[in-house]
Amino acid sequence: MDNYPAIIVITPLLAALLAGIAAWTEERLSYPIALIGLAVSMFAAFKVLMQVITSGTINYRMAGWAPPMGIEYTIDLLNAMVLLIVASIAFFNLIASYKSVEQETSDRAGSFYAIYLLFVTGLLGVTATGDLFNLYVLIEITSLTSYTMVALGDRDRGPLASLNYIFIGVIGASFYLLGVGYLYLKTGSLNMVDVANILSGLHGSSTILVAFILCMLGIWIKMALFPMHVWLPNAYSYSPVAFARIVAPLMTKVMVYVMIRLMITVFGLDYIFETLNLSEAVVWLATIAVLAGAVMALAQKNLKKMLAYIIVCEIGYMVGGAWMGNQLGMTGAILHILNDALMTFALFLAVGSMVYKLKRVDFIDLKGLFGKMPWTMAGFVLAAFSIIGVPPTCGFFSKWYLILGAFEAGAYHFAAALVISSLICAVLFFKVFEICFFEPMPEGHGHGDSSSHVTIEEAPLSMLIVSGLVSISLIVAGLYSGTIVNTIILPFLQ
Q1: Alpha helices, DSSP H only, in 262-324?
Q2: 191 forms bridges with which residues in the sheet?
Q3: How many domains is the chain partitioned into structurally?
Q4: Residue 460 belongs to some domain of the structure
Q5: What is the pTM of this model?
Q6: Backbone angles phi and psi of 218, in degrees to 5
Q7: Residue 381 structural domain
Q8: Looking at the domain assignment, is residue 167 inside a domain?
Q9: pLDDT above 50 (res 167)
Q10: What is the mean pLDDT of residues 191-211?
Q11: How far apart are CA 457 and CA 138, in angstroms?
């Protein structure tokens, strides 16, 4: 079917409209509408990836209009992979979220599903589009829905976190849009391929330099690269659990994809690494981001906050790899988009189950949790091992490529930061393991005396099944890392 690229994005958009209508008429229909919409989108994304692997890049013109007048979806190996990641995580998270949505947003569940679908639509559109202004519009769709979701979360702190997110998000969007404006002034086009062809003869232009810097700053703010990260910890911590489980693994990774797309497709690696020669400065910034994220995570006493700062650290991994200036670094960065999405999703699935049962995830609330929620904790442990980089989990392999790329580029400080941050993550997670396993559950925790038998109170089966599948995928993705690199990443980079 030739229309699969459009189906990926349009289906969740139409489902959002129907779910919104159902929220006002028959709210119980909102969930199955959302589930069906995302299932169709995931299937279309899988078909597109298979088609790109076998037949090459897909150029899909919306409504048949040719660029620059029309919007073109250009699907290559990179964004075909990211599209499948986004659609799959969105679908499986929705399965796992039914109970938590009922618990947290029972009076507005239909509205939640409609906004959720709009958020996913924005992410899918951002990944698929080949138009710079359309990219801006779709980024803002994801941002606006994110602001709303954060405000719907913690009733006391959610609105303030959302307001802070809005202020910083508007600044990031303004930087990017201004950069696109400068590009349009010089090229007269918004189509990425057209702009790239014109820019090849304008590498000495100061206007293009300003446009590049503005676009990068905007994307770095959106992805929460340190020190532009201040919106992320509260936004992720205070949003509804069902939304935190999708925004944490996807939002920053899609923004990293956008950065790589602009670097490779629009501006060109020759311009970035030879003409501008900014790679060393950005790698140093990424090094600081890696260490700062890990150190800030050490200071947290809440599990969600700790994981939010670990995400800041992970962003540094991907930015540093992409700016290393060699194939190994870029391979590690792209592979880590997939791996970190899976790892973060697995962690937040486990945390979501904890929140569902405990309501809070301060460290003091986690005492004796291994006995109370053994299957949830098993998934959490496996995800933690992957974040640390324990083989054969997928986290090890992308870190390995990043370290090799750092040594090839002579960026030994970045390699050292990777190792140090992994050690800090080991300390952090083993601290959590100690609390959950060795510290007895206090009296009044619902089980009487702490020395008595602990009743197992696991999360609902829908949460456990998804958590188990994603946790297993961390090992599967690790074992097939070579296949992913050879089939998708290296052909894209060549």
Answers
A1: 269-270, 279-298, 303-322
A2: 131
A3: 1
A4: yes
A5: 0.91
A6: -60, -45
A7: 278-494
A8: no
A9: yes
A10: 85
A11: 41
